[in-house]
Design goal:
50% of the residues lie in helices and 4% in strands. The protein is mainly alpha-helical. A hairpin with a 5-residue loop joins strand 2 and strand 3 (45-47). The longest helix is centred in the last third of the chain and has 28 residues, at 129-156.
């Protein structure tokens, strides 16, 4: 029997529908006070439809848009969680190196960053629009690769 869209969901239902482990949802609850499942006797969680919608938004921002947890927290604070879940916002599409809300490639990968070899060519003095677009594309690909690696590591453990 199919549940009503307004029905509360258990953590296992939400985790299965989002293809995430339950511990990730519990962790996100500690980082995002906007996620407040109803807890019944024995600590069983029941997520409201608004909680599920917010969790889907958090997953999208973290896994698809490349934001860090701090970046998503900042977005919620600046734009308001209601505006974000109602579709009234558009996440930043640019991956700015000086923007702490966007994850840098290799972030969280211990030892993955290595200094450039001394014999590598120095960077050009100025970048044209094509160079900037190419760099943003490369950064997005690296962030995606880092996400895939984190997911693979999470699946192992």
């Amino acid at each position: 029997m199919e549940k009503s869209p307004a029905a509360f969901r258990t953590i296992s239902e939400v985790a299965d529908s989002m293809d995430l482990p339950q511990h990730v949802l519990r962790f996100w609850e500690t980082r995002f006070p906007q996620i407040r499942p109803l807890k019944r006797a024995g600590g069983r969680r029941y997520y409201r439809p608004d909680d599920v919608e917010r969790l889907r938004l958090i997953k999208r921002l973290l896994y698809e848009e490349g934001y860090t947890i701090k970046g998503v927290q900042r977005l919620f604070k600046e734009q308001g969680v209601q505006a974000m879940t109602s579709g009234e916002f558009e996440p930043r599409l640019a991956f700015a190196a000086d923007d702490p809300a966007v994850e840098e490639p290799g972030e969280g990968l211990a030892g993955a960053r290595r200094p450039l070899a001394e014999e590598s060519a120095p960077p050009p003095e100025t970048f044209g629009p094509e160079d900037v677009a190419a760099l943003k594309g490369a950064l997005a690909e690296l962030a995606g690769a880092a996400r895939i690696l984190r997911q693979a590591r999470a699946a192992e453990g």
